[in-house]
Each structure stands twice: as C-alpha cells, then as structure tokens.
Amino acid sequence: MTNIQLSRTEKIAYLFLILIFGLGIYYSNTNLLYFDEVYTKEDGFAEYGTAFLLFCSSILLFTRFFKFFKHKKTLWKVGVFLLAIIFLFGAGEEISWGQRIFNVESSEYFLENNAQGETNLHNMVVDGKKVNKIIFSQLLTAILVIYLIITPILYRKYDVIRNLANTFAVPIVKWHHTIAFLVSTGILVFMPSDRKWELYELAFGVIFFLIFLNPLNKSIYEAKS
Fold first, then answer.
1. I need a surface site. Which of 37, 108, 146, 211 has the fewest CB within 10 A?
2. What is the pTM of this model?
3. Are 223 and 71 in contact (CB under 8 A)?
4. Per residue in 177-196, pLDDT tens?
C-alpha cells in the first residue's frame, strides 16, 4: 500500500470525525440521557449535518454534470446524474423533506404506514417490517462492503473493471476512505445507545463527500479523460 497523503480538506474532515466520535464515546458512557436527547437528538446537529453533506455531494455532482456535459459521453452523464439524484434523495429523506422544518403535517397514508408518522420512505412499514431495516441497513451494508473494499481491489487489478468504472463515472475510493469507514464502524461498539447511528450517518456524509471531491480516478471529472 502506498503512503497515504491527505489534503488539507481531508485532514480537517477526519479531525472533525475524531472529535465527533470522541465526544460520542464520552457522552454515551458518562451521560446517556444527554447523548440520546441532546448530542444525537432528532433534528440535531448530526442529522442536519448529514443532510447538509449529502446535499453538498449532490450539488458537487450536478455541478460537474453541467460543467462537462458537452465533453462527456452519454454513459458518463448517466452515471454522474444518477449519483447526484441518489444523494439528493438521501439528503431529503434525512430531514423528511423539510417536513419538521416547515411544520408540514403528514398525509393520512404516511400517518398510518410510517413508523414515525413522517413523510419519508425509509421509515415506512411494509408487512410489519421497516423499510429502513431491510433496504437502508442490510442492503446498504452489502453495497458499502462491495464499494469500499472489493471494488478498489478489482479496479487496481483488472482493466475491464477500471474501464467500466471510468465509463460510468463511478468514483473509486482511496484506501484512507475505506480505513475511515472501518474505524467509524468499529468505534460504534463503544457507544451503548441506539442513537449512535446518527453519528454513523454523519460519518457516511463526510466520507462520501471526500470521495466525490477527490477519488482515486479523479480524471473522470476532467474535460478529457
């Protein structure tokens, strides 16, 4: 593995995560009530921070989409556009599409079928099971393992995977991105609260923004690549 060199932005982002998770470990073990009802509360800094970072990732992708629209092929445009939409959707879902911010009441359908009575999809209940647990937890975990661990190895080893990823503008993670995710995941063990997942989602937002900002194959975000 080559030496890891971090940009100033990456250093600041990782120091931020170290601080956030360090305080998370401290509060969850010394004052669980404060951790649950203040530090990781609903509509708190962690939730809004996650939504903001997901939105920033989406804006970054949309900016590149329009900036290089005339220079790129159709499949590149499809890849960037879909990623931008996915992260915009994630940002909206995180804050229930601004429902609580603007004090909008849920429709009868969401009141009856949403675990929290909110206007979002990830808290929907289908046949007694939360969509969040089935799709946004189990499926997302599998996708992250493939994307963060398996894909970088295949990208470096096989030309066909490299060409495919570059064609669809799939940003490939650097190893420090993978390490950051694994460390963030491991740290959760030291937080005895279900609200710890709010911090994990915040880490997701930070790291994915860094991935889009400076991926291994950054040349895909250049006019000629």
1. 108
2. 0.90
3. yes
4. 999 999 999 999 999 999 99
